Amino acid sequence: xxxxxxxxxxxxxxxxxxxxxxxxxxxxxxxxxxxxxxxxxxxxxxxxxxxxxxxxxxxxxxxxxxxxxxxxxxxxxxxxxxxxxxxxxxxxxxxxxxxxxxxxxxxxxxxxxxxxxxxxxxxx
Length: 124
Description:
This protein is of the alpha/beta class. 39% of the residues lie in helices and 21% in strands. The chain has 5 helices and 5 strands. Strands 2-1-3-4-5 form a 5-stranded parallel beta sheet, with helices on both faces.
């Protein structure tokens, strides 16, 4: 019997961030998919039921991470997928704002890989 691999979905409008996150996570044996917009991420979530956790950039042009998490909460399929906020916003209150918006975790950029892996291991 084939064991399904749980996947990490990276949603970020900056391809350099996606490239860097995929590279470090692949080195740590995670399977990653990526989307360059929230809508593209929703399409992947709808078609791939093996997504264990989403790494969500909070600052995107079309739909930011806060709006995207609100949309995910409305969808019966997506609302159970945990979201870890990944953001360059590291001011006082930003972590709380992300958690209050529905994120299960928070990582500031530049990403501390060890901290990210610790958070991911809670869901994979």
